[in-house]
Design brief:
This protein has a seven-stranded mixed beta sheet with strand order 11-12-10-13-16-9-17, sandwiched between helices. A six-stranded parallel beta sheet has the order 3-2-6-7-1-8, sandwiched between helices. Helix 10 packs antiparallel against helix 11. Strand 22, helix 39 and strand 23 form a beta-alpha-beta unit. The longest helix has 58 residues. The chain is of the alpha/beta class and 1041 residues long. The chain is built from 39 helices and 24 strands. The termini are far apart. It is globular. The chain has five domains: 218 residues, Rossmann fold (3-Layer(aba) Sandwich), CATH 3.40.50; 220 residues, no CATH class; 191 residues, P-loop containing nucleotide triphosphate hydrolases (Rossmann fold), CATH 3.40.50; 129 residues; 153 residues, Lambda Exonuclease, Chain A (Alpha-Beta Complex). 34% of the residues are buried.
Length: 1041
């Protein structure tokens, strides 16, 4: 029989969570012969990708069962349901047919989509129009809100004064004074559920109250200064009264301390550490080391009699000084705090006026409804009653999301013992606290704290089916060791009791911890990590791994960008989210310039970018500077007329300007053959243009404004078969697995960052009415109040768990090899960091304080997957061109096929330094649309023949000093550019690549190159003209005419 009631499944990484969830779903689905019982089942997860994957897995499994295909799941279902094989096949076929005819009732959805459905159903009850528009793009909507607030400058005097103060504060902090930029930077706080309660309270506070409270803060601070100075003055007088002077104290410590407090207001001090970060407290506490050893006996007696009073003065001023800096920190954040209230009110106004509702705010809206309405009534309005609930990734569920589900779920499982709830998750993989996820809910359930009358059953998926056994063993031992760094007992217990997994049948695997030298600068740090990564991936390639088998995990996008640059500089294919941005593609950049010229016809920078692209693809035989100088014109019409005359084009500027955005870009593609239509970035860009034109505007200036806002968000999605190393953040990698994982930059602290801000309740602070402040995290929070101490401990413990969870997620993605790269510390930090945890673990394993450059937990090599033999798939699969254009527009014509071939050969030889780079560069040419996959074999064969030619192979050796298409500026400012020059012992071997038949001018050109290079001090060893169409012919040219 299928499981009933309330079930919690704790699923560690790689333990078959998705299989288990699909099995649980099919178990309930097939338990009944009723064909449409899936309508009473609701499965929820977090992303559309996860939804689609679950649907696919369920339908694939159901289809296999309906066809009678054997599988382990089938046998398990037969055993659990206690029905025959024929019966399960019949039920599966029946339900499959019903599902396909009523797919909309297949209730597998995201939590946000389910909440949206509730809001739609109860729109009238919530005071909403039934026709409201759901806003998914919250960033654009927030920008509109910010714009409306700025529009009120000069109208509202209080708001104008507030924004002026805000800008002045930014200028004082040496930051941008751009109000719009700064407001857009912190306005997204309005959308984060973590900020819900404080923001609701702040919206009730008027600007006048904020200003009144600001003045009250100033008054309180002045009063504190007076009190601290008064106590300090009194203390100094008492010290002097007993005849003690500064020289009686070591380094004048005691008197200097109180003198600094007397000057508190006049000193430009940002931290309380300036006053109390010394050993005075300890010395006062124990009464030792306060005065010099040779102090006169009578003075010593006088001082000891005064000591209790000094201790009291020190402690009192310490508390008051903490209050002083507490108010100081409040004042720094007061203007942004005031503006959050303004922005929050404006956000509500904009939603109401535009009849648009932010998807991210739906949980707020539905909370009161679910709590106040009878559950049967809600089910009646929904038109369906759910009996079985399945919730995935429960550790990342927010408080409101779970609170809104509790009444619906509780009604189901408490009203009928045959109904069920299945929660699946893993507290060790809770890495979304920053966007509202609350892992404490999972801890509460594990401790039997819940809102249902039905007690939960617990199960723990113990076996890791993903990784080889040595990787499982490493993670078991390392995270049991690392968990001891967690100060919260509940967090430490969770890790230490759930981290151990049983291995599967896959034996072996490699786990290595690499330590690099500590860097002196940020730039040096990047270079050192990059060099180690390059060395590792190069060796992995030699070991037989495909590039796509390797994934590099990072915490920050800046680290990903750095590694992409370094890998690509070595001609190693690497992709990150940034490298897939549309704005990074040269073709897209060129098309954007056509639109810029249409809006700003005198924009010569746009002209130059188009000329750069044209020269690189179609006319690189002409000296670059001469080409640009000749073709730059005062306006767009003259610019394109010049190109038409010089290159026999047929581009009509007037026609282009008469078309819509999308049609004008199609026209440019038709007329300019240097824009390759097969490029995947170009196709995606055209999709974006088409979508914008359809939904918003067909005017180019509107699209350019949209592009400037969204350029950093628009990218292409490449297939998983793309032959390149992937570089991604750990957050992006969650739920995925890879053959080889390299995880560099492991040196972050487990402590909260000073940039992290917390909501601090303002209680009993004079006449201040504002209920909340937003303060930067620091240990000083504990000194402000008992609530501050509690907040500090919570934030510190939560950040430590976040950091360790993030490391756990990163370390459990690998199947066969895991390489962790950290640094050698020159000093021990006061708080745990990734590198101290790793080095501590290594020392424990080695039973030695001596660290190795590389520590191998295991180096048992396993055979790489067969994917390296399938390089024919690669990025070339994305190239399908834009075939339909030929039906609408005139098919473009090429002047000469041989000319295009020659340009391609020039392009590839300009990119290839050594023979091992050939395959990748050819694949890049296919991806960019320069080369058809059908011509790949012929091109590779031709270039391989060229690179091993006895006269030419020296130019492709790794150690060769090369000039590849390097500009040489002559005294008359003319520029020459030899294709390839090899410098060896100061002598030069010069090559020039040609297509077609030999001509006299070819020899004249290379002799001219030789004369120039010889004049530069490099005697000529040889001059070679290399003809590449249809086969390689090398002609040696005598340097002497």
């Amino acid at each position: 029989m299928p499981q009933k009631g309330f079930h919690i499944i704790n699923a560690s990484a790689g333990s078959g969570k998705t299989y288990t969830l699909v099995f649980q779903y099919l178990e309930q689905l097939l338990a009944s012969p009723k064909k449409d019982n899936y309508q009473n089942m609701l499965a929820m997860t977090f992303t559309n990708k996860a939804v689609n994957e679950m649907k696919e897995r369920i339908l694939t499994s159901l289809s296999g069962l309906a066809r009678g295909e054997p599988s382990p799941m089938k046998q398990d279902l037969i055993r659990v349901l206690a029905i025959t094989e024929e019966e399960i096949q019949w039920r599966a076929a029946l339900k499959m047919q019903s599902l396909l005819h009523n797919f909309g009732a297949f209730n597998i959805t995201t939590l946000d989509s389910f909440t949206h459905g509730l809001v739609r159903t109860f729109a009238f009850d919530l005071g909403l129009s039934h026709s409201f528009e759901v806003v998914v793009d919250s960033k654009s909507f927030i920008r509109e809100v910010v714009d409306r607030v700025i529009d009120r400058v000069g109208v509202s005097s209080s708001l104008t004064q507030l924004l002026t103060q805000f800008s002045l504060r930014k200028i004082a902090d040496e930051k941008s004074w751009d109000v719009s930029y700064n407001l857009n930077e912190f306005a997204p706080l309005l959308l984060n559920e973590n900020n819900r309660t404080p923001l609701q309270d702040l919206q009730q506070i008027s600007l006048e109250t904020f200003e009144k409270d600001r003045k009250e803060l100033n008054r309180l601070q002045e009063k504190l200064v007076d009190t601290i100075q008064s106590i300090s003055h009194k203390t100094l007088k008492r010290i002097a009264a007993v005849g003690l002077i500064k020289d009686d104290f070591p380094q004048g410590l005691l008197i200097n301390h109180f003198e600094r407090l007397v000057a508190l207001k006049s000193r430009e001090t940002k931290s309380i550490k300036t006053y109390f970060n010394n050993k005075l407290k300890e010395k006062l506490q124990y009464g030792e080391g306060l005065y010099k050893k040779n102090l006169a006996l009578d003075k010593e007696r006088q001082f000891l009699a005064l000591l209790p009073e000094l201790q009291e003065s020190y402690e009192l001023t310490r508390k008051l000084t903490h209050q002083y800096f507490y108010i100081q920190n409040l004042k720094k954040q007061w203007v942004p705090l005031s503006l959050l209230g303004v922005l929050g009110k404006q956000l509500e106004t904009e939603q109401q006026d535009q009849n648009r509702r932010l998807l991210s705010r739906f949980n707020d809206r539905i909370a009161s409804l679910v709590q106040d309405q009878p559950i049967p009534f809600i089910y009646e309005r929904l038109g369906v009653r759910y009996h079985h609930f399945f919730i995935d990734e429960f550790q990342d569920t927010s408080v409101l999301q779970w609170k809104n589900l509790v009444p619906l779920v509780g009604n189901a499982i408490e009203s009928d013992p045959n109904h069920s709830l299945v929660l699946v998750g893993d507290p060790k993989q809770a890495i979304y606290r920053w966007r509202g996820g609350d892992v404490q809910q999972f801890f509460n359930l594990l401790d039997q704290e819940h809102d249902f009358s039905v007690a939960p059953n617990f199960s723990h998926l113990e076996t890791n089916y993903r990784s080889y056994d040595q990787l499982v063993a490493f993670n078991n031992h390392f995270f049991a060791f690392a968990a001891k760094s967690l100060e919260n007992p509940q967090h430490e217990k969770m890790f230490s009791t759930t981290v151990f997994q049983k291995p599967n049948q896959k034996k072996g695997g490699t786990v290595a911890i690499h330590q690099i030298a500590s860097a002196r600068t940020i730039d040096e740090r990047g270079v050192l990590y990059g060099e180690k990564v390059i060395a590792l991936v190069t060796q992995l390639r030699l070991d037989g791994y495909s590039w796509k088998d390797i994934v590099i995990l990072v915490r920050k996008k800046s680290e990903a960008r750095l590694l992409v640059e370094q890998l690509q500089a070595k001609s190693i294919p690497a992709l990150s989210s940034d490298s897939l941005l549309l704005g990074q593609a040269e073709q897209v950049q060129a098309l954007i310039q056509f639109l810029r010229l249409r809006c700003y016809p005198k924009d010569q920078q746009a002209m130059k970018i188009i000329l750069d692209r044209y020269w690189d693809q179609r006319d690189s035989s002409t000296a670059y500077h001469n080409f640009v100088y000749t073709h730059l014109q005062p306006n767009a019409e003259a610019f394109f007329d010049k190109l038409n005359r010089d290159y026999t084009l047929a581009f009509d500027w007037g026609i282009m300007c008469s078309l819509s955005v999308y049609e004008s870009l199609e026209y440019c593609l038709q007329k300019f053959d240097f824009l390759f239509q097969g490029d995947v970035y170009l196709q995606r860009f055209l999709e974006v243009v088409f979508s914008f034109s359809k939904l918003h505007s067909t005017h180019p200036i509107d699209f350019l404004a949209y592009w400037e806002r969204e350029e950093e968000q628009l990218n292409v999605q490449l297939p998983e078969s793309s032959e390149a190393i992937q570089i991604m953040t750990v957050h992006k990698s969650k739920g995925l697995q890879f053959e080889v994982v390299i995880y560099p930059f492991l040196e972050d602290t487990l402590q909260p960052s000073s940039y992290e801000q917390v909501w601090y309740p303002i209680n009993g602070l004079g006449g201040v009415q504002t209920p909340w402040a937003r303060l930067s995290y620091s240990d000083s929070l504990a000194e402000y109040s008992p609530e501050g101490k509690q907040l500090m401990e919570y934030t510190k413990n939560a950040a430590a768990l976040d950091a360790l969870n993030l490391l756990y997620v990163g370390c459990t993605r690998a199947v066969a090899q895991l390489h962790l790269i950290t640094r050698q510390r020159t000093s021990v930090p006061s708080h745990p960091t990734y590198d101290t945890l790793l080095s501590g673990f290594v020392k424990q394993q080695l039973k030695s304080e001596e660290l190795q450059e590389t520590f191998y937990w295991s180096n048992s090599q396993v055979l790489p997957p067969e994917s390296i033999q399938k390089e024919g798939l690669l990025l070339a699969e994305m190239r399908n061109g834009i075939q339909w254009r030929s039906r609408l527009l005139t098919q473009r014509r090429f002047d000469s096929a041989a000319r295009d071939f020659g340009i391609l050969i020039h392009h590839l030889l300009g990119k290839i330094k050594t023979p091992d780079q050939l395959g990748w560069q050819v694949m890049e040419a296919i991806r960019e649309g320069r080369l058809g996959s059908e011509d790949q074999e012929a091109i590779e064969k031709l270039l391989q023949e060229l690179m091993v030619h006895p006269l030419l192979k020296k130019a492709f050796e790794p150690e060769a000093e090369l000039w590849i298409e390097r500009d040489i500026i002559l005294p008359n400012r003319e520029i020459i550019r030899p294709d390839r020059v090899v410098i060896e012992d100061h002598r030069a071997l010069i090559m020039d690549f040609k297509t077609g038949h030999p001509q006299d001018k070819d020899a004249e050109q290379i002799r001219a190159y030789g004369a120039v290079i010889q004049a530069m001090g490099h005697p000529i060893e040889a001059l070679y003209l290399v003809y590449t169409n249809p086969k390689v012919i090398v002609e040696s040219i005598d340097p002497i005419l």
